[in-house]
Amino acid sequence: MSVAGLRRATGESVRRSVSGLPREFWWLWTSTLVNRLGAFVATFMVLYLTMERGYSASYAGLVASLHGLGGVVSSVGAGVMTDRLGRRPTLLIAQSSTAASVALLGFMQDPAAIAAVAFLVGLTSNASRPAVQAMMADIVKPEDRVRAFSLNYWAINLGFAISSAAAGFVAEYSYLAGFLGEAAMTLACAVLIFLKLPESRPGRGPEGGKIEPAVGMRTVLADGRFMSVVGLSFVVALVFQQGFVGLPVAMGAGGFSSSDFGLIIAFNGALIVVLQIPVTRFIEHRDTRRLLILSSLLAGYGFGLTAFAGSLAVYAMAVCVWTLAEIVNAPTQTSLVVRLSPVHGRGRYQGMYTMSWAVAGLVAPLMSGFLIDHYGPDWLWGTCALLGTVAAGGYWLLMRGLPVGGVDAGFESRAEPGPGSAAGSASGSLSGSPSGSPGDSPEEAMPESGPVPDVAKSPAP
Predict the structure, then answer these.
(1) pLDDT grade for 8, boundaries at 50, 70 and 90
(2) Facing residues of 413 across strands?
């Protein structure tokens, strides 16, 4: 193919990927990009504590775990707020509070104060995720959600790639500037949401002559199929989290600088920026079982390769492997979550899914700190390979016997509200069309193939 032909094909692919999405989605997408451009704390917390402040890997792991604990606490609470209070108010509260707590963290000196404020940062920063995911599901038509969530994930990683490289050099001179920069960007997101995004929460009117039953946390916890997905998500997230807690410590112990780590982790974001959209177009009709099994194995053994890294080139090669896992896993697994979520329980279901990442954020630093301090980094990377294998086996057991088909084949999806329903009206007013097909039953069979919904980088998410 000629260069001109390649450009035309690329342009057509990009056009198909971005066309037809509602205006509100693009404002939400922009807020995601701005927020990730300011990312600093989650990426450089461990380096800040070990290299700048001179604390041990175990203390850094404890602080990072408290940050994760804050996310665990806020996940379910923010999910309930998202359903009860609304998506927009939850986002405004979460992002304003995050800006204030991140700025405060930069000025803390006492070890106990650092730990306490890190918990507060985790509490506030994680609270926005269920609301973002639920709002995106509200305003985008079901057939467009895979594409929309892939674009959102692309924005996360575009901002992440830029901010990681820049923040690595900022950290060489002033960690405080990094904290204040993230606070300013997060506050800018809150302002953007306040000015541009209307509320999208579906109404709770009668549908088919009856009121849809309320969804509580007991409903979520009793949904064994969904909770199995959440459990496997936790195992995979535990592996991916090592890119932010185990990898920087291992690189620092190996004599690499914070800017070296910034470049390596930015490489992860850059690969996702380049590959996310084309890979998503390739996998959206593939068998979800194979995609989840494959991504789990690639994640585990990609981090396992880090045991052999002695140069930036080898680190980059390992990053290539587990980044491909991330690209495949994110749209596949997060799309499944929305399909398993009832419309009026999206906040709670998304909150529980988000909690799997938050719990991983709590456990992963403790795991990496203990293994590195007592046995060395190679044991950590071997454990990652084992966890990836366990997750792949779990997905195989969960889905065996299901028919082979598209991304969500074999799973039942929650019915989308019809055009005349209150929920359909709320979504349709934003997207320009109803959010789904009519139906009175609480569940309807999923298509054998075709695109499906949805979301998120802890990092992911």
Answers:
(1) low
(2) 444
pLDDT attached to residue 283 = 77
Number of Cβ within a 10 Å radius of residue 310: 9
Mean pLDDT of 136-165: 79
Interatomic CA distance for residues 109 and 357, integer angstroms: 28
Q: Is the pLDDT of residue 448 over 90?
A: no
Tokens, residue 161:
């790639």
Report pLDDT for 429.
36
Please name the residue that has the structure tokens 């609480």: 442
Q: Is residue 126 a contact partner of residue 74, using CB atoms and an 8 Å limit?
A: yes
Q: Is pLDDT at 15 greater than 90 in this prediction? A: no
Q: Are 312 and 267 in contact (CB under 8 A)?
A: no
* Ordered DSSP codes for 98-157: HHHHHHHHTT--SHHHHHHHHHHHHHHHTTHHHHHHHHHHHHS-GGGHHHHHHHHHHHHH
d(CA 289, CA 275): 21
C-alpha separations of 82 from 91, 214, 278 in Å:
9, 14, 32
Place of tokens 């996998």: 283
